[in-house]
Amino acid sequence: MKLPEAYYQSDDVVGLAKDLIGKYLFTRFDGMVTGGYIVETEAYAGVIDKASHAFGGRNTPRTSTMYLNGGVAYVYLCYGIHEMLNIVTSVEGQPHAILIRAINPTLGLDVMQARRNMAVIKPNITMGPGSVAKALGISRKVNAISLKSDILWLEDKGLVISESDIIAAPRVGVDYAGDDALLPYRFYVKGNPYVSKPRKP
DNA sequence: GTTATGATCTCCT
DNA sequence: GGAGATCATAACG
């Protein structure tokens, strides 16, 4: 059921980012399993991508996780407030990663609702990278954890999103990346209510 | 040691 | 439509 390690070791991050659409993502903390299927991702293509933390081969205590062998999680804090979950791909030394921007929750909705302090469940419970991490209970404590662990993993449940329902678009929040900000490295499911909206200008 | 800033979200007007 | 929250990280002195 879990995706095999080899799945993550493809060199084609962008292709993987698209393929991850429709795969299931689960976490287990304190015995509570929560998760759903991925409806939005963004690829960060290693050292040649200005939007990537590893651009130009930058390797620091934080980004060293991205250089690990594919199949681990890269979690970091952004804006001092939000944790973000990435899937590291490719082989050791190749800092490719995929940001999980949104999932369609299917399991443990009540737990996620409590984690988000929401009175009512609305689509924004797992809409946007910061929200996904919070709803799933993900924090920097699981940075660099293996995806074949029982804490955080992905599954292929045979859900197929039709090719025509997967849209490619420019990434969000990376204006500082110059030309690379325009690359169509963001993928999402057309019409899915959990897909985040691009930020305003 | 100091300083600028971000792969964002939420609430307010 | 817009600002504030809030801090680890990275670059620099």
UniProtKB/TrEMBL annotation:
| Keyword tags | DNA damage, DNA repair, Hydrolase
> Record keywords: Mitochondrion included?
no
Question: What's any GO biological process attached to this entry?
Answer: base-excision repair
What does the record give under GO molecular function?
alkylbase DNA N-glycosylase activity; DNA binding
Task: Give the Pfam families listed for this entry.
Answer: Pur_DNA_glyco (PF02245)
Which EC number(s) are documented for this chain?
Answer: 3.2.2.-
Recorded hits in InterPro entries, A to Z, give: Formyl_transferase-like_C_sf (IPR011034), MPG (IPR003180), MPG_sf (IPR036995)
Work out whether the entry's keyword set contains rRNA-binding. no
Q: Which family does it belong to?
A: Belongs to the DNA glycosylase MPG family.
Q: What is this protein called?
A: Putative 3-methyladenine DNA glycosylase
Source species: Mucilaginibacter myungsuensis
